[in-house]
DNA sequence: ATGAAAGCGCTAACAG
DNA sequence: CTGTTAGCGCTTTCAT
């Protein structure tokens, strides 16, 4: 019976013995008081019989529909991005924007993800560096990353918190620390390294950098390699604290310390960045830098919308220089259980 | 200068001094060898000048575009759903489907989320109970939940693992356990409760059920209330193990035990369900039931696609009874550090 | 190498 | 109450 292609309102109309526009009226919900009960039922029945669904593309071609904004995050597992998404979506909703979420690490994949979709604006969070800007003149705001072109961005100001952390460690007596970095090559992580390096230099502290992939197991391995061999080898590590670029890495260090029979924070102070669930789940709770992800998302979305409302369609020669702004959101150091003076202040002579 | 509404290919055509169809040719990428270099440049320039972007809705109305499947998950923070999404998306991609993700707890919100979008099929994971089925005749498969109507579903078979867990505890000497349940009223959690109850009954074990919201803090509070007052009150808890409906809850119990000065697993055995990151981050690592989320997502998507390919458009009277299937995926018990015999087997006389 | 013209399936006036 | 009509912006023959 059924033809190959899906039934249209015409098909429904002829089956129900009415005109196509009547079908339209019914399916728009505009039928009350304008189409008789009997006719409505006939239409609905015919539609059900045919499995008819109004063609969304055709409808939107006519009516326009609400503007759609794409939120892109690189990872769905990391709770931090979840927070960003939550904040951004709330802001978008409030402004009457429809949201579509794309989970991809780089912009090209994002583009592929939404090919053929009507996207009016893009909010891209923590995308990989070096991605060229969107070829399309879509208004975009970048979150927590180097804006590729002349795009606006919202980022964290992490350096002060990291400086505060290093100072705090210094005050407690730490003189030599390890810095467990992320292998991910994004602007945020570069900035974190720079901030730690600068702070250490300023205090004349020794700093030992190591890189690891952003998961517990990799961090555990990297940290284990750093820590002295198991009991009896007589060694304390050549550092008394580990500053990590991410809470996930810190958990790896906790595990490694445990493997090596070292106590946290007795033998080793550990800190992270992000303040995700993991940070309070571990014992002792992790000293970390809280990054207000929701606020990041919300702020970015607000800027994007503002840009849109004032005609951000990158129209002609309307000098668009002033639109490239970079806002920085403050990050807050949360000192919790893990930071304490080194076991033996004389460990390095 | 700029009119209110966005520029169309006609606008570009007249600015470039060519016909509209030429503009179309260029923007489809079908211009090579058919439109002169000079003309192409003129078109591109005019388009850039106007900020022209081809209207995606119009294009899709003509060409159809790839089928789109909606994946709905209730929560983006929970890594379990992340796994489901990952598995489902991979399967969809492989089959040439475009994916749109909606993060909403109930079907109505999901519907609102994608109003006006062209959705050809729906894969809904762990949706709240009691939601009426979609009014639209969209092919759908339900994951990890009671299928609302006559819809297919893919779910876990958790009971055997839970039975195994209780048996394991029994064998170790546990006779009285607490069951920390989730307040969320979904089919999965009901099933978990039933399985624990049944297993306890079969072994003649005492069981103390408590409900909590699905986050660490709530679980911590609930568990604290259950555990004996701080040091000196002389009491051991009236149970020697806590079986939790979710890893997140287990972490709350770890914290509560710590608050009360109880050791895990020395004084208290704790187990969870899900096997998320948290489960291995805590010390000792958590005994839990691994739910293969990726497989759940992939299996569900495969079924959905299969249903689609064989004309699943819910056409007419084609007896659709046989399509309502329910697959069960096995869950696996992972016994890790946390399960051990109770501190004093005589604690309850 | 370019243009004219006919729709895709729907909505939204406007007539009856 | 219902039907007629004209597009929405694009793709896609078919002429030129």
Automatic annotation (TrEMBL), chains A, B:
Q: Where does the HTH lacI-type domain start and stop, copy by copy?
A: 7-63
Enumerate the transmembrane spans. none
Q: Which Pfam families does UniProt cross-reference here?
A: LacI, Peripla_BP_3
Task: Please name the GO terms that the record assigns under molecular function.
Answer: DNA-binding transcription factor activity; transcription cis-regulatory region binding
Supply the InterPro entries for this chain. Answer: HTH_LacI, LacI/GalR-like_sensor, Lambda_DNA-bd_dom_sf, Peripla_BP_I
Record keywords = DNA-binding, Transcription, Transcription regulation
PANTHER family named among the record's database cross-references: LACI-RELATED TRANSCRIPTIONAL REPRESSOR, TRANSCRIPTIONAL REGULATORY PROTEIN
Q: What is this protein called?
A: DNA-binding LacI/PurR family transcriptional regulator
Q: Which organism is it from?
A: Lipingzhangella halophila
């Amino acid at each position: 019976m059924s033809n190959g292609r899906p039934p249209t309102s015409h098909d429904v109309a002829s089956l129900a013995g009415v005109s196509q526009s009547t079908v339209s009226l019914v399916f728009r919900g505009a039928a009350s008081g304008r189409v008789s009960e009997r006719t409505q039922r006939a239409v609905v029945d015919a539609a059900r019989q045919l499995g008819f669904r109004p063609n969304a593309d055709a409808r939107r071609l006519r009516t326009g529909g609400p503007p759609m904004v794409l939120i892109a995050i690189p990872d769905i597992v990391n709770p931090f991005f979840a927070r960003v998404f939550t904040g951004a979506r709330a802001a978008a909703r409030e402004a009457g924007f429809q949201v579509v979420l794309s989970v991809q690490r780089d912009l090209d994949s994002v583009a592929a993800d939404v090919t053929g979709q009507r996207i009016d604006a893009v909010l891209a969070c923590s995308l990989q560096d070096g991605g060229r800007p969107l070829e399309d003149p879509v208004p975009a705001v970048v979150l927590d990353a180097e804006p590729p072109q002349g795009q606006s961005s919202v980022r964290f100001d992490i350096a002060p918190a990291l400086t505060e952390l290093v100072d705090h460690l210094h005050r407690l007596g730490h003189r030599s620390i390890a810095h467990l970095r992320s292998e991910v090559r994004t602007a945020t992580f570069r900035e974190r390294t720079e901030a730690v390096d600068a702070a250490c230099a300023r205090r004349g502290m020794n700093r030992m950098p190591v890189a690891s992939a952003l998961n517990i197991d990799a961090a555990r391995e990297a940290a284990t390699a750093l820590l002295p061999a198991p009991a009896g080898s007589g060694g304390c590590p050549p550092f008394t604290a580990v500053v990590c670029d991410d809470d996930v890495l810190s958990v790896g260090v906790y595990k490694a310390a445990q493997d090596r029979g070292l106590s946290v924070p007795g033998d080793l102070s550990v800190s992270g960045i992000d303040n995700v669930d993991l940070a309070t789940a571990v014992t002792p709770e992790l000293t970390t830098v809280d990054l207000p992800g929701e606020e990041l998302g919300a702020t970015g979305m607000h800027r994007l919308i503002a840009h849109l409302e004032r005609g951000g369609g990158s129209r002609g020669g309307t000098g668009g220089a002033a639109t490239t702004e970079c806002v920085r959101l403050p990050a807050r150091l949360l000192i919790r259980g893990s930071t304490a003076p080194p076991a033996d202040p004389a460990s390095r002579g």
